[in-house]
Write a structure and sequence with these properties.
The chain is α/β, with parallel strands linked by helices. An 8-stranded mixed beta sheet has the order 1-2-4-3-5-6-7-8, sandwiched between helices. A 7-stranded mixed beta sheet has the order 9-11-10-12-13-14-15, with helices on both faces. Helix 4 crosses helix 7. InterPro entries: AB_hydrolase_fold. Residues 1-22 are annotated as: Disordered.
Length: 1251
């Protein structure tokens, strides 16, 4: 063999000698270069152990004296950090030095050629060297594996005060003292000293090592350690630590190690577990397992024995150790939670295999050794039924336990979260696999389930030919029968099962020992010893007893909706009923026939056949979903068929991570669920409008990747509600249909309803700390701190540090759900949230003291979800900016994470909202009105708006109280406003009604015998309602017509207006709004003034407001624009500003820009509606018609006379209020009562004019 490269240096590759050395007589190579701790067998793997940062200063190899004997039958050596090693000046150079020693020893103790596996195992800082050594050996073509004991392969480790190297390096001798203190269990002393010494260093003070040694000696006094010995250890360790730290500070591997690797984590010191994620970046075939103990004692006593067992199991799977390793090693290996049977690539699909009823009693994963190697290129793991699993007391609990292991393995494998997870259960494992798949799928994980030949219910249908099909006989008896079947003794198993069942029915006990004797005779040809059989029965019996009891009987509570595959074994058809039964609990299940019987389908060529089926299935699923990546700046939280739902962040910019503060809500929704990232590009936006446009482009790019996404939905809370509204308006201008969901928030900033984020009050980091504390459940703590701050004034003048410490103590355990495990991480999140808040508040800062609001009216469908105490105010505020609102009440808090019942309720409301058709925008019933609603006689009622399009939402209030079974407010959306005549518009709306009611059509006409409807036209909507009624009458449909204060012969507002003359659409829009909100006197006064101005020859505007509105608001006088006189629009601009200030209380904080946009939008609607061509019908409407007039209407007689010409069955009733206030909250119930009373008894009106 020839090594690659040559030379030395930090960035160079170092040559590995391949010259075979002569055998040595001694076990120590050279002069203290390599200590052999265990001779081992010539044909076994060679394990070489690499020291930590102190270089085993006290005695070379002393760290590994406990683990070495447990690694039988391997040869075990420990490299020594001697003067030669001390002279190396880089990590690659030192690795090459050690590799020369390793190869010399390995070749001198190998039979024949270089055929033995070499395992390089590094502890702590030794992981850095072990990785580099393994990389060099692997590149040289040498059969190598790397084991890393609980540290990263980079240096220094990530910063945290709880671990060595995580703070500023303090110098070799000081670090040696802290390292020794930790090794002797004095963690608190080490951490305290580390923090104080780091602060001294930061201040420029020198560390007194002698004083530190004295303090450490006092702390370690009980250990019987002499001062002289301690000083010697410190001096030696200091030299080594200084050198090893300096030759690789910082150090990051230049290339990935592509050979097999195993990372063993110490469970008692989780601060080192980041190694799983980091090391995966530098190892292409890395497995991760949990060992035993802490980082500091994992090489001692029983902890070392556990780690040794894991290394041996790893070596065995690689083929470096024979199968006859000790039973003690096997037992220790059982302590791991998952066996990785095939590493696979990080981007490949992951297959996790679930054991049968015996829990793989003999050796975890042994059932799947044949099939696992045939599932390339997938990563394949087998779940181990260990003590933790044995303590689970239900199928869902055990499934959740296994799922945590699965997700941890996926993360540790370097997967970016995009690959497919396949849960494959064999026999009874089908029960668990189905439940695991269901839980993962509901959590938004990309999952598939494979079931090998059994039902997902338990016990199976009754038949003596199969396990569990007869009366359960007890764990050990069932284990004997299961083993007999596994060895092919079916006749014996069936005969015994029948006889044992009879004995049990007669009340006799089963003699398990006698049964084992009979089984031993039956299996005698297999060469199975009695002791081994008894061990298998005992282990299997415990597992079978427990697994049977936790789910007997078991039937899945919900269907699994993800992809599923059932593979049946053709040679045992008694199991084929699984196809019918499992189909009841899987909505997307495929069924195929594999090879072999139920009992040998995981062995030999049968396993190969099953593996081919699984791989083909995985390939199809992967290809089907690879076309749906995420656009840049989008995080996909869940991806399954359905709408594309995008969540907008709040003021914190999702400081916890995209979608983290949504809790379980994304997992409860169907579709592509995404979170918009507040990244560097978003942070750079200079205005809130620019941010909304950026997010809009991201959403459109992402949605283009999902052409099957049925609907586009924006969801926002806090300032995310405002941003979502802005995006919705931009999409509306681009003619892109979308839906909007507002979660318990106003769409204005600052909100009048929220007083919790007053950042000018207490400071950004303080408020961010409160926000995160509230989010983690410490509401009482936050309330107490806020109250104290208000009482004392400058309570947080010194900053947020103490507050954060106190808050962390309150919520530390809850923060783990967000991945925050230390005070330092908590402070980092608070700082990030504060930074985001400051930037977003800068973008949201309104001008001239007004409020930030949506710059327009959104015509699409909007759902507002809120709590009961805020419902009325939020609904009132939202109706200024949205025409089509549905409000739903859920007990929620604007700060809380959505979990449990709250998340379920919100998800349910959103799902129901999206099911509705776009025509039924406001026909949904509001729970507030359930008790007070009136019976609508089961006739759908559709309200036709006037020229204003129901801009303030009063028509929706009428629909709510009418409480019709179906119906709603018809919408003047973009499609409607493309119509050029009343007839075309009426036809469009009738088509929508037909679609909404699912009327059966013959050609283009509905079947009249199945259709009935009531049309209600308000004010200027009367001509359109009449046109629709005439078209339905021509089709023979049962239609009824209600006109509220309007004339069917007039398209548009009164030609005389309030002042007796038409003032133009802009002025009329302003006056109409004033009347709508109850300012009738103001409207009358202004109408008269504007009429006089018109008589003086001033120009009338049509459509959008002139730019002088902006000048008026800005206080610029004189009516000049760009140096030119523009007196024609000055009066209108002044009217607009007078109206804005007069109506501001009723407008709930609407900004002047939003008011301008509202007026301009309303004026353009008036212009459009007035321009519609109308058609005089030759015939009159002959169906039931009701005209409702306000009391004391001066024009009552002329309106009645006009409408009577076009309606042959016209009846008239009165209602409270005037033309506009009749729709207000105080009068709308009276109006609804008139309509419903007339509908029930058409001729019984309050005042009836028969015409």
């Amino acid at each position: 063999m020839v090594a690659h490269g040559g030379g030395a240096g930090a960035n160079g590759a170092h040559q590995l000698s391949t010259k075979k050395a002569a055998p040595k007589d001694k076990e120590i190579i050279g002069s203290d270069k390599l200590l052999i701790l265990r001779s081992g067998k010539v044909e076994s793997a060679k394990v070489y152990l690499i020291h930590g940062l102190d270089g085993d200063a006290l005695s070379g190899g002393s760290t590994f004296t406990s683990i070495a004997p447990c690694l039988a039958p391997c040869r075990v050596g420990a490299v020594v950090y001697d003067p030669e090693a001390l002279e190396c000046n880089s990590i690659p150079e030192l690795a090459a030095c050690y590799n020369r020693r390793v190869l010399e020893d390995a070749r001198s103790h190998t039979a024949g050629s270089d055929a033995n596996l070499i395992i390089i195992a590094g502890y702590s800082h030794g992981c850095v060297l072990a990785h580099q050594m393994g990389h060099q050996l692997h590149k040289a073509g040498i059969w190598t594996a790397v084991v890393m004991f609980d540290l990263e392969v980079t240096w220094p480790p990530p910063s945290t005060n709880s671990r060595v190297g995580g703070y500023e390096f303090l110098g070799g001798e000081a670090e040696a003292i802290l390292l020794i203190s930790r090794a002797f269990g004095k963690f608190e002393f080490a951490i305290k000293e580390a923090i104080e010494l780091a602060e001294m260093t930061a201040r420029g003070q020198r560390i007194d090592v002698d004083a530190l040694t004295q303090r450490a000696y006092a702390a370690l006094d009980q250990r019987g350690l002499s001062m002289d010995l301690l000083k010697m250890m410190v001096k030696r360790g200091g030299v080594n630590i200084d050198k090893l730290h300096n030759i690789g500070n910082p150090w990051e591997p230049l290339e990935k190690y592509e050979g097999p690797a195993l990372l063993i984590l110490a469970p008692d010191t989780p601060e080192f577990h980041s190694a799983a994620e980091i090391n995966a970046q530098y190892c292409t075939q890395m497995e991760v397992v949990n060992g035993k103990g802490s980082h500091y004692n994992m090489m001692q006593g029983e902890q070392a024995a556990t780690q040794a067992a894991l290394v041996l199991e790893f070596a065995k799977r690689l083929g470096g150790v024979a199968d006859d390793i000790s039973s003690a090693g096997l037992e220790a290996a059982k302590s791991q939670k998952m066996l990785i049977l095939r590493p696979g690539k990080a981007e490949s699909s992951k297959v996790y295999l679930i054991h049968g009823l015996d829990g793989d009693a003999l050796s975890g994963g042994s059932t799947f050794t044949s099939i696992a190697q045939r599932l390339a290129p997938c990563r394949v793991g087998a779940l181990v039924y260990d003590q933790e699993a044995l303590e689970c007391n239900s199928i869902p609990d055990l499934a959740a336990c296994y799922n945590r292991r699965v997700l941890e393995d996926v993360k540790s494998s370097g997967d970016a979260g995009e690959s497919l997870i396949v849960i494959a259960g064999y026999s009874h494992g089908c029960v668990l696999a189905h439940q695991m798949g269901h839980q993962l799928y509901k959590a938004g994980v990309r999952t598939a389930v494979v079931m090998f030949d059994l039902e997902v219910t338990w016990p199976p249908p009754s038949t003596h030919s199969r396990v569990g099909g007869y009366e359960f006989l007890g764990g050990e008896a069932e284990a004997v029968l299961l083993i007999s079947r596994a060895f092919g003794k079916f006749d014996f198993a069936i005969k015994e099962a029948i006889e044992l069942t009879k004995m049990k029915a007669q009340g006799q006990s089963i003699d398990v020992d006698a049964l084992i004797e009979r089984a031993y005779v039956a299996l005698g040809q297999r060469g199975l010893s009695m002791d081994l059989l008894k061990m298998m029965v005992k282990r299997g019996g415990v597992n079978i007893e427990k697994l049977n009891n936790i789910g007997n009987p078991w039937e899945p509570l919900e269907k699994y909706e993800g992809p599923a595959l059932l593979i049946l074994a053709p040679d045992t058809p008694e199991f084929h009923s699984a196809a019918e039964i499992n189909a009841r609990y899987c909505t997307r299940m495929e069924v195929v026939t594999g090879k072999g019987s139920h009992y040998n389908m995981m062995q030999g060529e049968q396993a190969a056949a099953q593996a081919a089926i699984v791989l083909e299935y995985v390939k199809r699923l992967s290809e089907a979903t690879l076309v749906c990546p995420a656009a840049e700046g989008i995080t996909v939280l869940r991806d399954c068929p359905g709408p594309c739902i995008y969540f907008l962040h709040g003021l914190d910019g999702d400081a916890l991570g995209p979608g983290m503060n949504l809790g379980s809500l994304p997992s409860l929704l169907s579709g592509r669920i995404c979170s918009i990232e507040y990244d560097d590009e978003a942070f750079a936006c200079e205005t809130i409008e620019a941010l909304a446009k950026l997010y809009k482009e991201r959403i459109l790019q992402d949605r283009a990747l999902r052409p099957d996404g049925k609907r586009l939905v924006l969801v926002g809370r806090s300032i995310g509600a405002l941003v979502a509204s802005l995006i919705a308006l931009y999409l509306q201008k681009d003619h892109v249909e979308c839906f909007l969901v507002i979660l318990n928030s106003e769409v204005v900033w600052p909100s009048k309803l929220d007083d919790s984020f007053c950042y000018d009050w207490l400071g950004g980091e303080v408020e961010a700390t409160f926000w995160l504390s509230h989010l983690a459940g410490a509401k009482a703590f936050v309330d107490e701190q806020v109250q104290s701050a208000v009482t004392r004034g400058k309570a947080f003048a010194e900053g947020a540090s103490r507050l954060q410490t106190a808050a962390f103590g309150q919520i530390a355990s809850n923060l783990e759900a967000f991945g925050i495990r230390s005070l330092k991480e908590f402070r980092s999140v608070c700082t990030l949230a504060s930074s985001h808040c400051a930037r977003l508040r800068q973008l949201l800062r309104p001008s001239a003291g007004s409020m930030r609001t949506p710059a327009g009216i959104f015509d699409g469908k909007v759902l507002v979800i809120t709590g009961a105490e805020r419902q009325s105010k939020l609904e009132q505020s939202a109706r200024q900016y949205f025409r089509n609102i549905v409000t739903r009440c859920v007990n929620t808090d604007d700060h809380e994470v959505y979990v449990g019942a709250v998340a379920s309720s919100i998800a349910s409301e959103i799902s129901q909202f999206l099911v509705q058709d776009r025509t039924r925008v406001d026909g949904d019933r509001d729970p507030r009105h359930e008790a007070e609603s009136l019976d609508a006689a089961h006739v759908p009622i559709y309200v036709v708006p006037g020229c204003d399009g129901g801009v303030l939402g009063e028509l929706a209030s009428l629909v709510d109280i009418l409480n019709a079974d179906t119906g709603g407010v018809l919408v003047f959306d973009q499609e409607a406003r493309r119509c050029s005549s009343l007839a075309d518009l009426a036809a469009l709306f009738l088509q929508r009604i037909s679609d909404d009611q699912a009327w059966i059509s013959e050609g283009d006409l509905p079947d009249a015998s199945l259709c009935k409807v009531l049309l209600l036209g308000h004010s200027s909507g009367a001509p359109l309602a009449y046109e629709m009624a005439m078209q339905l009458q021509d089709c023979g449909v049962d239609v009824r017509l209600v006109i509220v204060q309007g004339e069917v012969s007039r398209a548009g507002p009164s030609s005389t207006g309030l002042s007796g003359c038409w003032l133009g659409s802009t002025c009329e829009a302003i006056l109409l709004l004033a009347n709508r909100v109850g300012e009738r006197e103001f409207a009358l006064k202004e109408a008269e003034a504007m009429a006089k101005a018109r008589q003086n020859g001033q120009k009338l505007s049509r459509g959008r407001l002139p730019d002088t509105c902006g000048l008026a608001f800005d206080g610029i006088s004189g009516g000049y624009m760009n140096g030119h006189s523009n007196n024609g629009g000055v009066e209108e601009s002044k009217l607009l500003m007078r109206a804005f200030w007069k109506l501001s209380d009723q407008l709930n904080g609407m900004s002047v820009d939003a008011f301008k946009e509202l007026v301009a939008d309303l004026a353009s609607r008036i212009d459009w509606y007035m321009s519609l061509d109308s058609l005089e019908h030759q015939d009159a409407f002959e169906g039931p018609a009701l005209l409702i007039l306000v009391q004391d209407c001066a024009e009552a007689e002329s309106i009645i006379e006009s409408n009577a010409l076009y309606c042959t069955q016209l009846e008239v009733a009165e209602t409270n209020g005037d033309q506009h206030s009749c729709m207000h909250q105080g009068n709308v119930k009276s109006l609804a009562a008139q309509i419903l009373s007339w509908q029930a008894t058409p001729r019984a009106a309050l005042m009836c004019h028969k015409t």
